[in-house]
Amino acid sequence: MRKLSMFQIMLLVIFGGLAVSGVLIFALAIGGGDTNTIGAVKIWGTLDQGAFSIVIRQATERDGQLSQVTYEQKDPATYESELTNALASGTGPDLFLMRQDYALKDAGKVALIPFSALSQAQFENAFIEAASPFLTQKGVTAVPLLADPLILYWNKDMLAAGGFAQPPKYWDELFNMAQKITTKDDTGSIRKSTVAFGEYQNVTNAKDIVATMILQSGSTITAYDNGGHLTPALAPRAGGATQASVSALRFYTEFADPSKNSYSWNRSLPEAQKAFASGDVALYIGYASEAPLIARTNPNLNFTASPMPQIRTGGKTLTAARVYALGASRAGKNPTAAITAAFLLASSENAKALSSALGIPSARRDVVGQSAQGTDDLFNKQAILANSWLDPDPEKTATLFRAMIEGTTSGTLQVSEAIQRADQQLAQILGL
To answer: Any idea what the CATH number is for the domain that residue 301 is in?
Structure first.
């Protein structure tokens, strides 16, 4: 009989916490070498099926445990509704990819891993800070796998034409850049833009950009109170919004104000990512996963990636990231096998292979901490810096952020009023 590895011991503890049969635990833990299998496990997700299939096949060639594990790619536009319906009807997957902003909304769909099996300290030591929404007050909702950090893309030719050799390191540099790079025709219409900021409908990642600025200011969007209840944090003090929220929203919307020298964007312009790929926007905030699409859209575009700009003084150095984790369906037929598969895929070797295959960082600290080349090194370092906030319902909060931004740019609301109203709407979403 071969000795148990540390990983297998951890699995024993996890299964014990889930009250799984001791006999089954023993069989799964020590198995029979390459002939051992955890059984059939079906995984759903929105990430590339080819990458997952390759990594699962390679892992199976090493030890055979994942030989009956399959991955099926789903359409991101219908993923949530399809997953909900499938789980309700008993035809859903055993494991599914859960993004960190859905961790709270989808918590009822997963089998919770208790802290007695995977402690908060162990989780935080193993995974990046941006994975924290998968931590609840009672346990872990899903096993983090991958991270997709928010970064700055910049057009080298446009910056050079404006006299800039480097992209901005700090947000306040955008004011000077906007005056020298943005060009308008005789009617005042924007022909070339410095940055796609200020609006919502045609700014690809507007919600995440503004949220990141708030986090950089040292504030947050939601927070737990002393009683353990999740509450709004945009305007926690009676009578007004936080200075962090005010500063972030005012800065972001200023670039859509025609009366300002920094005016660089409006809602009549094309969608931001497409405009950047077309060579009409100098700076674009997007996710690491967007780089291949931008390059395919315009192979002649002279662009590169840099770290997310920061607040010059008094802020926290960070960016945001979408973190993907594997959650075991509480309605699944074999939760033991599902959780085993999740931990096997999240192992250092498999996590690194998935990161390489998909072109985005791992969510594991030991993997992103390794040396890398080119943009991979940049993406890894940005993943390490990434933070996140606990989003109660991504669709509803997207509507909230849109109303907050457009209420300001339209002149309907003052900045502080827009934030105060958003805070009230957030309270309603939280059921307060």
So the answer is: 3.40.190.10
pLDDT at residue 125 greater than cutoff 70? yes
Tell me, what's the pLDDT at 334? 81
CA distance 313 to 146: 31
- Residues 403, 334 within the same domain: no
Q: Please write the tens of the pLDDT for every residue from 33-61.
A: 444 778 899 999 999 999 999 999 999 99
Rounded Cα distance between 138 and 196, Å, is: 41
Are the C-beta atoms of 106 and 87 separated by less than 8 Å?
A: no
Burial of 254 per CB tally in 10 Å (0-12, 13-18, 19+): buried
Question: Please, are residues 219 and 233 in contact by the beta-carbon 8 Å criterion?
Answer: yes
Residues 116 and 197 reside in one and the same domain: no
The pLDDT of residue 226: 85
139 and 153: one domain? no
Q: For residue 192, tell me if it sits in a domain.
A: yes
Report the share of the chain in percent with pLDDT over 90: 75
pLDDT of 242: 63
Residue 236 has what pLDDT? Answer: 61
Please check whether residue 345 is in contact with residue 355, taking contact to mean a CB–CB distance below 8 angstroms: no
Mean pLDDT along residues 375-390: 96
Q: How far apart are CA 146 and CA 210, in angstroms?
A: 23
Number of compact structural domains in the chain: 2
Is residue 1 domain-resident? Answer: no
Element (H, E) at 155: strand 143-155
Domain span holding position 179 = 149-320+392-429
CB proximity list for 355: less than 8 A, separation 6 or greater: 146, 361, 362, 367
pLDDT at 29 over 50: no
How many Å apart are CA 351 and CA 343, to the nearest integer? 10
